[in-house]
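User: My collaborator sent over this chain with a note saying "see what the structure looks like." That's all I know about it. Can you take a look?
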Amino acid sequence: MTKTARLAVDIGGTFTDLVLALPDRSLSAKVLTTSDAPERAVLEGTAAILEKAGINAADLALVIHGTTLATNALIERKGARTALVTTEGFRDSLEIAYEHRFEQYDLYMERPEPLVARPWRFEVPERMAADGTVLLPIDEAAVERIGAAAKAEGAEAIAICFLHAYQNDAHERRAKAILSRHFAPEVIAISSEVCPEIREYERTSTTVANAYVLPLMERYLRRLEDGLKAIGSAAPLLLIMSSGGITTVETARRFPIRLVESGPAGGAILAQMIAAESGISRALSFDMGGTTAKITLIDDMKPQQARHFEIARAARFVKGSGIPVRIPVIDMVEIGAGGGSIARVDGLGRITVGPDSAGSMPGPACYGRGGTMPTVTDADLVLSWIDPARFAGGHITLDAAASHTACHTFVGNTLGMTPPEAALGITEIVTETMANAARVHAVENGKETSGRTMIAFGGAAPLHAARMAQKLGMDRVLVPVGAGVGSAHGFLAAPIGYEVVRTRLVSLNAFDARLVNGLYDAMRAEAEAVVRLGAANAALQEIRTGFMRYRGQGHEVAVALPTGPYGPDSEAAFRNAFEATYGALYGRTIPKLEVEVLTWTLSLAEAKPLPARIPDPPSAAAPSPSGMRRIMDPGVRQFIDASIYDRASLVPGARIIGPAVIVEAETSTLVPEGFRAGPNAAGHILIERIA
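Assistant: Without extra context I'll predict from the sequence alone. Here is the result:
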């Protein structure tokens, strides 16, 4: 066959998901993640799904990949030995951070350790002014000595971050040239490329994090490319970024920090597509896999975007307790709540779940791979929500007795509960944890969860979605086609794109249209050079954003800007856009106060229109259930008889009444008592509360 097959691969903490899109159909597969060598699961899964489709690797036209490898390396501190080269007098800014306590009254609060220890932070005599003029020329001899010393100490990567380099990158580029005599240029990261915007601590933290994962991601991507070639694929390898756009492997090698939320971003893109074709203006994307749960708000078919993200928070849900990075990212909350999250009883006699996960090895107790602690998957199995013979498409046979033993030994025995009572407690705690995270995320963004439609995907989400919706005051849940490998499906819908950022302080009282036009022309050229590597002839869509504030304020709000070119009369359009955004966030504006733009961004991507709204199907008769099973209903908290349906037997417009379980290869959907469910016109399962 001709090269028309597209493969999407999503590496998670427990499973590696694959989706193969063919002209006439799509296939999916789940394999356990091989944590010691993640590319092995990718290649084994690729070979299996290609064999299932009856095609060869040479038939692949494109491979799109998302991975948690960079994120895990940062969380687990398993990156490269990294040195920081910075302006003299500023070596400790990485440790000083924001100069505040993220937990004001916690006497035992511990800050996360910097990725670079103090002895590996080197200072260079040099200085740029805030406007980019040179105050002190760079001491090249000092840079030479630092390069030799860092090499002798065993450094594997270098981060260079000089003061005000976002205005003038000459010193950083010269330092990189000198240090390249001692290190390969590929393992040297400079802040003026990684994060060319104001705020020294975040810029330094982002550049250090990028350098920290550079060698790891370089080796991994090279092994993956070589492995794909070895099985006969000549297809280009593209990587999905945390912003939801897709970029080339060359760009991913230079800026692996942009991949930190690549898998979850694919899920948000899927939810955006589902919202568009289902006509949902206010949605909540709920992605629960084996290790984590991710929650994103989607309004008017657009996921929320941000330029700030924290990795490896020392305190759950506490802002400021992690490693800050300034990258384009889909704004989401991610918590350690997945099928593999471990349950236990704490010192106060409370059931706690996560954030640690059993992962793929040893995995939940029911996997029979050495795990003994109870996990959410074990609890689901004890409650009979999962068929042990059909888990992961039947590729993994679950040991129900091991789950009962784990729930009894580590939870039930301590609290005087039966295994089903302990299991119900585990599922209630993990569902409430996720619901609380959704509430907090919504409130922080000035929004509500009630009245939204939940779009639930990932291997574990369809089992917990209806109960979570009850807790959040939501009446509708959509479980997409291929929900068990939802993020991988999202990869196939994501556009090739790239975002560029620049910091230039411009007051609207003295708006310089020529400066702003020149700035955006340069940003467009930089972004297009990257996008055209993967989308040579595609039509492109440009989005401009300004981070604006009233003069004297310390933080900005993101404002959608009109497209250029700009002229003297553009000042009014900028001011109106700012006041509309500011008023929506804070309920008021401040008259007669000067407005300024600090940071400018340009996002450039393939013009991929959202799918059109699909009309609701006519009513259809529901099929007879394929069987019955006694399950624990979380609402009534007792075992009741539930009907079992194969998802493929449900036709659009048919509705079944809970309690029921809808089964498919990669997941199962729980329909509790008080809900009805059935496919809409696109085949997505709509679960609705019965009035």
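A starting point for your reply to your collaborator: The chain has a mean pLDDT of 90.
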